[in-house]
């Protein structure tokens, strides 16, 4: 793998949250840091494939998404991209090969990030769902650990979503209909077409209606405890045993976070009698999902929506559900 060198100052790699002129709060946490788009463009190298063909840079992906968002919503205000990165890869220029770390100057250090996630918020396109203000949000994920940089360049993989950000807690609300986790393209132009296709096909009203419906169904304390127990059991079932059940992608630590926040979350905790409606339960799940690594976050987020929607369907139709029964 070869690297294209760009003038870099590693001391400036991370910017403070208060300095970011984008939407407030973290849509993902885990081991991520917030960086600026200019940092990605001017202070990071771009990985190459073995045939010296360049990857599509994180900054190109973000710029492409930003252009498509502005084209689809030309008369609305759009915030600057909120960018989170993880898994920094450090290097040095060839002329500094024999220097100690202390002797390296900023120009001799190189970095890039293996994983990048971002969201672009359209605050003027907002909706009120279950007394929570939600704003339209578009974004994506690039995980270079899912590319074979030691081979010749082939189609590159990207993930793109469109959904809503809950202004109360900064949780992302995403459904499978608003998520494409397997975009494979060879150029930025093709990438723009795929992003535009997802935005155009997104059924906003259907998604909002399903979220609104969640608040109409509740679990009492006993049902909640039973469901949490089954969620912990699910992670240990074999593949065949999982086939006829709702899919669940959360890990055991995240399920534990849901339980903790059932008691203590300031916005979505249980009521006085121990009941919790499915909208609050859903937000406890999406909040716990913020601890997921970048390359798993979107899938787990969409899965939370499908899981709670399945619970609502079972309660409404009074049908058997392994997690409830």
Automatic annotation (TrEMBL):
A Pfam family that the UniProt record links to this protein: DUF3871
Protein name, as recorded: DUF3871 family protein
Protein source organism: Maribacter aquivivus
UniProt lineage: Bacteria, Pseudomonadati, Bacteroidota, Flavobacteriia, Flavobacteriales
């Amino acid at each position: 793998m070869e690297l294209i060198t760009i003038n870099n100052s590693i001391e400036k790699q991370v910017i403070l949250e208060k300095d970011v002129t984008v939407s407030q709060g973290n849509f993902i946490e885990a081991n991520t840091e917030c960086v600026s788009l200019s940092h990605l463009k001017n202070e990071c190298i771009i990985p190459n494939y073995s045939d010296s063909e360049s990857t599509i840079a994180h900054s190109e992906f973000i710029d492409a998404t930003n252009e498509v968002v502005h084209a689809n919503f030309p008369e609305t205000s759009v915030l600057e991209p909120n960018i989170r990165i993880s898994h920094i890869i450090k290097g040095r220029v060839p002329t500094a090969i024999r220097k100690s770390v202390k002797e390296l100057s900023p120009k001799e250090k190189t970095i890039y990030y293996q994983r990048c996630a971002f969201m672009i918020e359209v605050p003027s396109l907002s909706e009120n769902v279950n007394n929570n203000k939600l704003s339209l949000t578009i974004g994506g994920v690039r995980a270079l650990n899912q590319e074979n940089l030691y081979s010749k360049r082939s189609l590159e993989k990207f993930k793109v979503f469109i959904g809503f950000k809950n202004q109360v807690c900064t949780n992302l609300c995403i459904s499978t209909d608003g998520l494409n986790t397997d975009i494979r393209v060879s150029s930025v132009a093709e990438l723009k077409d795929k992003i535009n296709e997802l935005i155009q096909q997104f059924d906003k009203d259907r998604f909002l209606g399903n979220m609104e419906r969640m608040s109409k169904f509740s679990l009492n304390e006993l049902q909640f405890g039973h469901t949490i127990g089954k969620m912990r059991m699910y992670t240990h079932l074999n593949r065949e045993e999982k086939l006829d059940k709702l899919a669940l992608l959360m890990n055991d630590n995240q399920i534990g976070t849901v339980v903790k926040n059932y008691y203590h979350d300031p916005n979505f905790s249980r009521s006085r009698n121990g009941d919790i409606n499915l909208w609050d339960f859903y937000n406890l799940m999406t909040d716990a999902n913020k601890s997921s690594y970048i390359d798993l976050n979107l899938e787990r987020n969409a899965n939370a929506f499908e899981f709670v929607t399945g619970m609502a369907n079972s309660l409404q139709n009074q049908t058997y559900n392994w997690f409830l029964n």
